[in-house]
Amino acid sequence: MVSSALRGAIGAGFMVAAMASASAQVLEIGADNGPTGLDPHLITAFPSFMVVNGNIYEGLTAIDKDLKTVPGLAESWSAAPDGKTYTFKLRSGVKFHDGSDMNAEDVVASIKRVQSKDIASPLASRLAAVESANAVDAQTVELKLKEPSAALLSSLATIAIVPSAMEANKDALQKAPVGTGPFKFQEWQPNGFILLTKNEAYWEKGLPKLAGLKFNIVPESATRQVGLSNGQYALLPNIDAATALQLKGKPNVKLAETMDLAYTLIGMNVSKPPFDNAKVREAVNYAINRQEIVDAALFGAGVPGGPLSPALKSWALDVNQFACYKPDPAKAQALLKEAGVATPVAVTLKVLPRQDVKDIAQVVQEQLNKAGFKVELVNQEQGQFIQDWRNSNFDMFASINAGQPDPDEYFYRTFRTGGSTNVFKYSDAEIDSLLDQARSQQDQAARKTAYDKVQQKLACSGPVAHLTYGTLFSAMNSKLQGYDVMPNRSLMLLRNASY
């Protein structure tokens, strides 16, 4: 027989549990663009990363807010003395969102999927050093490398683990993702919203605290701002400086900021004239006034930047070391003359459909046109821009790309001959050699020396004119607690948030 006191305690417990359950809400997020797909091994656009990375999917390792590599789905790992064998111990009790157990076979299949030529993952170069992946037992994975890879552990944070049944499937995960993360896919209404719900079986006890995440696709900045101010949306992630300035000081709105790893850029196709000529690429850099771009397009909330973000203090060179970063339109015109090209040099500049990138493109157009170029801007919708980017169907493009904690993760796949995101068709034997050296070295000082040389060469004559690194803002309702902005634009810390 249950005493009245015990019955009262039980009743109170039920009431507390009910109140706790009722307090968990679906977080309403205002996003400027919808994703073009949700397959973590195929996506390249920020709107897709924002939804899936760290929310739906996880890797063997993870990157924390200080950009350090920490355990993810692997609770621990060890490396052989020669750096060519890694053994990962997986967490027990991890389940995919479909209820199946996550085990070593899924990890092996995920790595093979990224490496598959049929899948053609843009992440493939990050696993170029991996010779084989083997399941030692259900909870142990062994990776054998062709040569040591200093960036391997950091890179594995970007390789999402998917069910082994998906290894050869190119289509299923684009619209129906299945991961292990704190939130699981529920619904996608194109141009409307994407709804993720709480993963009740998530391996990290007590997380997530929210009942779900709803990414509302709202292209108009003014509409998003009003929605945040009136409480319709609780978070506007990764907003530009103009939006942040307009929201500053609004009632019940708080801003969080950090230095962005992402870089704005002008990309050039070196497989066809005029950008097959290094002097023309150098002329582009001399024509550009990066501080003017920061002032005019970023409202001063950023800095001129080279191939690596100033946030990577142990890696990035000071831009004052790059001669071509001192604006000199006359020098640009002289280089065009040396290149033997007829001026004005007529080129098209395709523009990613983001307001900050559009603003940057207009400033760059004006600067280039004063230095011997004739630039036509082509504003595209996101899907077409990405398709043309993938197919190297461009003269030039203006975009913003995600940065990574280790230089290898950007440089190797982007600038090495045949790299999985080397859409520029760039090939340079010296760069290839330096990238190979830096990847295989374990000594930090030796890697730094190699990457310094890479930055020096890429800055002026590479296929990318790096422009700026902005201050990364997120605007949120003052009631949102426990969420931190990450320099790599990941929203994975929403698992810790409450509202």
From TrEMBL:
Which keywords accompany this UniProt record? Signal, Transport
**What InterPro entries is this protein classified in?**
Peptide/Ni-bd (IPR030678), SBP_5 (IPR039424), SBP_5_dom (IPR000914)
Q: Name one GO cellular component term.
A: outer membrane-bounded periplasmic space
Extract the GO molecular function terms from the UniProt entry: peptide transmembrane transporter activity
Q: Indicate the segments forming the Solute-binding protein family domain, all copies.
A: 69-420
Chief subcellular location: periplasm
Give me any GO biological process, just one: peptide transport
Q: Which Gene3D superfamilies match?
A: Dipeptide-binding Protein, Domain 1, Dipeptide-binding Protein, Domain 3, Periplasmic binding protein-like II
Q: Which residues form the signal peptide?
A: 1-24
Enumerate the subcellular locations listed in this protein's record, separating them with semicolons: Periplasm
Any Pfam family from its record, for instance, is SBP_bac_5
Task: Report the sequence similarity comment from the record.
Answer: Belongs to the bacterial solute-binding protein 5 family.
* PANTHER family per UniProt: OLIGOPEPTIDE-BINDING PROTEIN APPA (PTHR30290:SF9), PERIPLASMIC BINDING COMPONENT OF ABC TRANSPORTER (PTHR30290)
Name of the protein this chain belongs to: Peptide/nickel transport system substrate-binding protein
Q: Which organism is it from?
A: Microvirga lupini
Q: What taxonomic classification does the UniProt entry list for its organism?
A: Bacteria, Pseudomonadati, Pseudomonadota, Alphaproteobacteria, Hyphomicrobiales
